[in-house]
Model the fold of this input.
Amino acid sequence: MTQAVRKHSDRVQRRSHAERTAETRRKIIDAVVDSISDVGFQNTTAAEIVRRAGVTWGAAQHHFGDKDGILIAVLEDSFGHFARRLDDINQKGTSLEKRIDLFIDRAWEHFGGAEYRSTFEILLNFAGSDQSQPESVWQSEMSQAWQRIWTRIFSDVQIKRQRARLLQQYTVSVLTGLASTQMLGKANTQDNLDQLKLVKDTLYRELRDQSKK
Amino acid sequence: MTQAVRKHSDRVQRRSHAERTAETRRKIIDAVVDSISDVGFQNTTAAEIVRRAGVTWGAAQHHFGDKDGILIAVLEDSFGHFARRLDDINQKGTSLEKRIDLFIDRAWEHFGGAEYRSTFEILLNFAGSDQSQPESVWQSEMSQAWQRIWTRIFSDVQIKRQRARLLQQYTVSVLTGLASTQMLGKANTQDNLDQLKLVKDTLYRELRDQSKK
DNA sequence: CAATTTGCATTGCAAGCGCTATGCAAATGG
DNA sequence: CCATTTGCATAGCGCTTGCAATGCAAATTG
Done:
């Protein structure tokens, strides 16, 4: 009989505050990403977020303060994820062409996903609300991460700083454009791959003559 | 004395209903574009629109029914404007390179402006609200206009239909991406021009070997 | 000219939104 | 074990939003 009692109490798992906090925050942030992707920013109300997260407003309030607090947390999380994704690229001993491939494909994993969409829509909304730091801080941090990875992956390429910057921006524009098309509900995987190939070709052409191979 | 009376009544200008309608609609549509560009979609409330237009809700209600009606009218207007802008391209007797130049620059006039931003944000919101026809109709009409102009301008280019379609899409992606960056408040004219040059180069490279010159 | 139609202004309302405040539950630390 | 802190649920509120309804002004028509 005590064996049966023991088994029952093991089911009520005691969790630390840190664990509970992490899980609740995770649920809320994921709910935002899911909601924006599904019903757009306008319909992603505080009520919708907590409904999707399976918590109540009290929990969100406790952890994030208000709706903007939630949205800012989503940006931070997304940015961190983006940077880690790019940092993971293992280009050791590969050709220039292969490196470009890896770089673009990995970046597209980010731009093509629900996470980027939520980031984009949040930033767009912030830009519309006031021209204050939230968006420019993220933009700047993202650019820095982008450049840092670029410098690492193409360290052997002798190219003017100005030109490198332009190519970085151009790549971001293409990826953002592709993502935008996707957001508007018109997506075709093969089309995306073909377009990615075009930007890869542009990069290859620009960088190959300056590469030590 | 009758001369003075005559002069006075000339100041109260009688306008036809058609004139009044056209002006009121123009004001409201322009107000939407202005508002979205200035404060974003979320803050572009019905109240904000009529305030900027200098009319009252009754006028908007009469002409457009509801807020969605206004937004759809903005899309129609923008699409028409886009098509006319592209139709205006005079490429007679110019080189391939020059034609690409004209095409991209004219298109950027559209994508880089407040009008496209409002279109984009409206479509994005519609996509988030329901996956119904409004956005796919415009997307499709816009693609058709784009292809029609492309075919006219590059009529001498022998290129596979599939490849032409890809290049068209790619161009739209770049332009959309540039526009997005602008929407997020980070714009630099020279950077934009440099990026446009890159896409022009890509087009030129792809099309020149198939051109009769 | 008068009746009718169209254009526009005003008022008020139902619903939704973000979030303050309060209180109970769960975990922590002494 | 108990006091304290942290996590979360609930209730309610003020404000905003979109828009239905009504009535007056301006243009049109016969």
User: Anything to note?
Assistant: Confidence is low (pLDDT under 50) at residues 1-11 of chain A.
